[in-house]
Amino acid sequence: MDEILGGGTGEYIVVRAEEDGVSIFGLTRGRDTRFHHTEKLDKGEIYIAEFTEMTSAMKIKGKVTVFCRHGVVKSSE
Ligand code: TRP
């Protein structure tokens, strides 16, 4: 099988946008912490993201519900 770019960790989050214009930012792993990816979601859209060798953190702006192994998290107003 071909090598998978970015080296997945098997750790995923599922984000459901509860309003238009939600932003998801992927932040780089390692000493340097910077955005390497931005994704825009509209209401009702679902985004499934995996933490990888490249991505150690995610920042989410807007009203969402996040499903992950730690539970279900809703952002506040
Ligand atoms: N580049 C940092 C790292 O890999 C990104 C990061 C992860 C971070 N968790 C954090 C930065 C918590 C500040 C606080 O560790």
Automatic annotation (TrEMBL):
<dbReference type="GO" id="GO:0006353">
    <property type="term" value="P:DNA-templated transcription termination"/>
</dbReference>
<comment type="similarity">
    <text>Belongs to the MtrB family.</text>
</comment>
<feature type="domain" description="Tryptophan RNA-binding attenuator protein">
    <location>
        <begin position="10"/>
        <end position="75"/>
    </location>
</feature>
<dbReference type="InterPro" id="IPR023558">
    <property type="entry name" value="Trp_RNA-bd_attenuator_dom"/>
</dbReference>
<protein>
    <recommendedName>
        <fullName>Transcription attenuation protein MtrB</fullName>
    </recommendedName>
</protein>
<keyword id="KW-0694">RNA-binding</keyword>
<keyword id="KW-0805">Transcription regulation</keyword>
<comment type="subunit">
    <text>Oligomer of 11 identical subunits arranged in doughnut-like structure.</text>
</comment>
<dbReference type="GO" id="GO:0003723">
    <property type="term" value="F:RNA binding"/>
</dbReference>
<dbReference type="Pfam" id="PF02081">
    <property type="entry name" value="TrpBP"/>
</dbReference>
<dbReference type="InterPro" id="IPR016031">
    <property type="entry name" value="Trp_RNA-bd_attenuator-like_dom"/>
</dbReference>
<dbReference type="InterPro" id="IPR000824">
    <property type="entry name" value="MtrB"/>
</dbReference>
<dbReference type="GO" id="GO:0006355">
    <property type="term" value="P:regulation of DNA-templated transcription"/>
</dbReference>
<keyword id="KW-0804">Transcription</keyword>
